[in-house]
Amino acid sequence: MPDLIIAGVPKAGTSSFFDWLDDHPMAQGSTPKETCFFMDPDSHAFRSDFNFSLGLQHYHKAFAPSDRPVRLLFEATPAYIYSQTALAEIPRLENAPKCLFVLREPASQIRSVYHYFSNNWAYIPAEMSFADFLEAAERGTHDFGGNELARHALDFADYLPWLRRWRDRLGDERMKICLFEDLKRDPAAFMSGIATWCGIDPRFYDDYAFEASNESYEVVNRRLHRLNMAIRDRLPKGPTYELVRGIYRRFNTRPAKKGQTDDVFLRLREKFEATYDPLESEFGLDLSAWRERG
Fold first, then answer.
1. Rounded distance, CA 41 to CA 52, Å?
2. Which residues contact 96 (CB under 8 A, 6 or more apart)?
3. Where are the domains of the chain?
4. What is the pTM of this model?
5. Which has the closest alpha carbon to 148: 172, 182, 180, 124?
6. Using CA of residue 191, residue 210, residue 19, residue 40, what is the dihedral sign?
């Protein structure tokens, strides 16, 4: 059973964090990274063949036996923060795992959700602008293919109510909140702090090469991308899959444009600024990076 569960939030660097932690010789991540075992049945990420209702004994399948001593088993399903099943079941697991939540400045997190689900996936129509997406999410006029992370993007970026629920169930000792901005600014210090909290040697990250994972991209040819999405989940995972994916990414994707601070984005930032003070005071955070303009 995992000792650590990275339970939030989506598009806040959890894929990179997972890979960096998985590289530690004393840690072992799940396969896949997002087991989704405790996702709610109405979630787009729910797996009918692998979920809590089938019995907790199935959860072990995500953690393969290792031929080396492992002190930290972990998984990362960042949508758990919004899952009622996860909230109900994870805190009462017998081995009492710790839960980590990585937060990102809300407007930037929402914008990343928009780019990710309109490019890497197709839950958000490609022709829908960011402004139109925000309006649809606020008014509830689009289902986004059943994707609750897109449909409730605005509510989900108000982190305080969700974190309060988890604190009530976990207590302060089993819960840690970090910032995506700290991860980006100084990944070595970030990972050293996490390693210490998890009881593994932080010195591993003194000379570690930090490479980003699962970054959003833009699609060059939409028809080819639709074909890619239709077949990629049917292919067996392994070296061949990774090779084909790398070739596809090289020829049909390009890095997503850096977010611009246009009027739509600035208004969105202002919308969430009122949530900063209570979040800081209740959880001992320093959100000064969120207040920076630019």
1. 10
2. 174
3. 4-106+158-213+273-291
4. 0.87
5. 124
6. positive
Question: What stretches of 60-120 adopt beta strand conformation (E)?
Answer: 72-76, 98-103
Quote the CA–CA distance of 225 and 227 in Å, as a whole number.
5
Q: Which two tokens stand for residue 281?
A: 């005071």
The alpha carbon of residue 35 and the mean position of all alpha carbons in its chain are separated, in whole angstroms, by: 12
Strands 27-29 and 72-76: parallel
Q: Give the integer Cα–Cα distance in Å for 27 and 68.
A: 10
| 111 contacts 32 by C-beta, under 8 angstroms | no
d(CA 45, CA 120) in angstroms, rounded, equals 15
pLDDT tens profile 73-109: 999 999 999 999 999 999 999 999 999 999 999 999 9
Going by C-alpha positions, the residue among 101, 219, 117 that lies closest to residue 170 is: 101
How far is it, in rounded angstroms, from Cα 115 to Cα 106? Answer: 14
Class of 4-106+158-213+273-291 in CATH: alpha beta
Q: Give residue-wise pLDDT tens across range 222-273.
A: 667 666 656 755 666 556 656 776 676 677 766 666 555 689 999 999 999 9
What is the largest distance, in Å, between two alpha-carbon atoms of the chain? Answer: 54
Q: Which two tokens stand for residue 179?
A: 């910032």
H or E segment to which residue 253 belongs: strand 253-255
Question: Cβ–Cβ contacts within 10 Å for residue 29, how many?
Answer: 22
Residue 79 and residue 184 in contact, taking contact as beta carbons nearer than 8 Å: no
- 12: how many CB neighbours lie within 10 A of its CB? 24
What is the 3-class SS of 155-199, one letter each residue?
A: HHCCHHHHHHHHHHHHCCCCEEEEEHHHHHHCHHHHHHHHHHHHC
User: 138: helix, coil or strand?
Assistant: helix
| Rg value, the chain, Cα | 19
